[in-house]
């Protein structure tokens, strides 16, 4: 299955409006009605996906001054194909001057024998903001995971902010202290364009400033709930403050 969904948000008349909203199963985009300056869209998997052989693409465009939040509704389950085929997904993001985007999908579960490749590519204007999160779950309960290659490439004003690739699925590497230390869940949270937040660390988590601007928080845990606890306060405060400070005069 090949699918390409598109979403374009613009700031008009003191609020963000959706100028393009095109779903394609299994990528279904459902706007939430509201009267605020920001727009909210739910991302729903309307079919079992990604399945081996699937090629999925989501294109997101946020115009000048627009504020958009995209949130997942249910976990993504990466499943094997009948003949061992791999699957792939690409999220292609552009946020223009003064715009802000929260892209918060639900966790991705890598099931046994699955082979999945996931790419997030984001190009931000110099004064734009992005908050995105990735939660990876290694297999269902009692199950060894398949393989996953996940890549994040984020630029701001054409300057690279984050370029990282992670490979999961080698049991020896996944159990090593230099990689995942045997933890079942890896979560990363990236905020670019928000106010400064102090670096910090704790048991199996760290919050690091990026050289080109931005904050990257990484957490390892036995379950998703534990992994996400450390993110909530930092990312929400930073992103909400940016939205308030940068919103165009109405």
SSE blueprint:
Layout: E1 2-12, E2 15-22, E3 27-32, E4 39-45, E5 55-62, E6 67-72, E7 76-78, E8 87-95, E9 100-104, E10 108-110, E11 115-124, E12 129-138, E13 147-156, E14 159-168, H1 171-174, E15 185-192, E16 200-202, E17 205-209, E18 215-221, H2 224-229, H3 232-246
Parallel strand pairs: 1-5, 4-6, 5-8, 6-9, 7-10, 8-11, 9-12, 10-12, 11-13
Antiparallel strand pairs: 1-2, 3-4, 12-15, 13-14, 15-18, 16-17, 17-18
Task: Give the key terms.
250 residues, mainly beta, eleven-stranded mixed β-sheet, 52% strand
Could you give a short description of this structure?
The chain is built from three helices and 18 strands. With 250 residues, it is mainly β.
Model description:
The longest helix has 15 residues, at 232-246. The chain is globular, with a radius of gyration of 18 Å. It is mainly beta. The N and C termini lie far apart (44 Å). It contains three helices and 18 strands. The model has no long low-confidence stretch (mean pLDDT 89). Strands 3, 4, 6, 7, 9, 10, 12, 15, 16, 17 and 18 form an eleven-stranded mixed sheet that branches. Strands 2-1-5-8-11-13-14 form a seven-stranded mixed sheet.
């Amino acid at each position: 299955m090949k699918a390409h969904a598109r979403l374009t948000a613009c700031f008009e008349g003191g609020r963000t409006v959706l100028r393009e909203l095109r779903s394609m199963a299994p990528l279904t985009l459902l706007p939430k009605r509201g009267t605020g300056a920001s727009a909210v869209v739910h991302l729903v998997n309307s079919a079992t996906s990604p399945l081996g052989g699937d090629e999925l693409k989501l294109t997101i465009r946020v115009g000048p001054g627009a504020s958009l939040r995209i949130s997942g509704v249910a976990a993504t389950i990466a499943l094997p194909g009948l003949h061992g085929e791999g699957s792939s997904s690409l999220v292609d993001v552009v946020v223009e001057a003064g715009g802000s985007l929260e892209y918060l999908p639900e966790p991705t579960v890598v099931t046994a024998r699955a082979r999945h490749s996931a790419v997030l590519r984001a190009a931000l204007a110099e004064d734009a903001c992005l908050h995105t999160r990735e939660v990876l779950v290694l297999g269902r309960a009692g199950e060894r995971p398949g393989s996953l290659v996940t890549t994040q490439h984020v630029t701001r004003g054409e300057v690279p902010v984050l370029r990282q690739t992670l490979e999961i699925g080698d049991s020896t590497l996944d159990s090593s202290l230099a990689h995942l230390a045997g933890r079942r869940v890896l979560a990363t949270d990236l905020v670019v364009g928000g106010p400064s937040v102090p670096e910090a660390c704790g048991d199996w988590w760290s919050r690091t400033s990026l050289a080109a601007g931005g904050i990257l928080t990484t957490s390892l845990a036995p379950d998703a709930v534990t992994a996400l606890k450390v993110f909530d306060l930092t990312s929400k405060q930073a992103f909400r403050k940016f939205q308030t400070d940068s919103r165009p005069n109405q």
